[in-house]
Amino acid sequence: DDDVAAVKEGTLTIHRLKRSMDDPHAREITTLKMEIQQIMKGNYDYFMQKEIFEQPESVVNTMRGRLNFENNSVTLGGIS
Fold it and tell me: Which domain holds residue 47?
């Protein structure tokens, strides 16, 4: 949601696209302690299950920034 995180050489930088760092709605950075298996497969028994259940979120992330509901338009890169 308007934040971009970059990790380079062990340093985390967060860029706020539309908000200032003083914005009270800016998120707090939280460090998670997870095993690689949890990151890769999560709580699913199989990767296919994970992919199936993550599809709605993947579609939303794919369309983010391309759908404009205010003026009912769609923006696709490379298409005039």
Answer: 33-80
Please state the rounded mean pLDDT for residues 52-73.
Answer: 89
Confidence of residue 20 (pLDDT cuts 50, 70, 90): low
**DSSP E strands: which ranges in the chain?**
3-8, 11-16, 67-68, 73-74
Does residue 25 sit within a domain? Answer: no
The reply to whether 73 falls in a domain is: yes
Q: Which residues face 5 on adjacent strands?
A: 14
What confidence tens digit (pLDDT) does each residue in 47-58 have? 899 999 999 999
